[in-house]
Specification:
Layout: E1 20-22, E2 32-35, E3 47-48, H1 67-70, E4 76-79, H2 82-91, H3 98-101, H4 113-126, E5 129-133, E6 139-141, E7 144-146, E8 153-159, H5 160-165, H6 167-178, H7 192-202, H8 210-213
Parallel strand pairs: 4-8, 5-8
Antiparallel strand pairs: 1-2, 2-3, 6-7
Length: about 240
Amino acid sequence: MAYYLVPPEKKTVSIAPSLSRIERGVGTNGSYQYLTNDPTNAKSDDYKDTNQLEPSAKPSNPTVIPEAILKRFHFTFLIRHPRSSIPSYYRCTIPPMDEATGFFSFMPSEAGYDELRRLFDYLRSLGEIGPLVAGQTEYKTGHREAAEPAGKAQICVIDADDLLDRPNEIIETFCESVGMKYDPSMLVWDSEEDLRHARQDFAKWNGFHEDALASSSLKPRQHVSPPNPCPMNDDKLSLFTL
């Protein structure tokens, strides 16, 4: 989803109009006020002058969302190697699947890897994620171990191949990272209500989730994926080198 938060091809960034407004009238200086609460029920007090610069004048933020709102989320990055994700997406843009998906042309930029990496790096620069990696108890600073800083969200990156190979372990680690209680039933969706809910949520993306809609649980796949050629390590985290 980072593709929809970051302007493609490194175009000029500006905060989404629905998340900002210009103060006008007597006693104001035309400064921008950024929305920091629920935009669906915004009141005057919900707007705070968190940045005196115009929305387009803060290049460090690659997204159309104010920094104050980004800080309210606990981010998880779900990644998939291009050798799998690109062919999968391409098949959705050619016959016969294009009739179902409504995507009739393949746009490489929509892969979103560049946007995802820029969002990841920005959140790290803010200190909103890291330095501890989910599933680890300590992180390395140079050649020594250090405890996790208080109040910091872990770096939670889930490789789709790991999720398919070891779903129970990965989901349990994810739950621990975000503060949820893990239950094995999370990997089962076999009721009519579950199916109705899934169809409703996936309706906007018709044709993209047919395998998921035809399933009833997430179990370890029979063939294990080959090793990731761009492994993540303690010293340098990589969301696949572009």
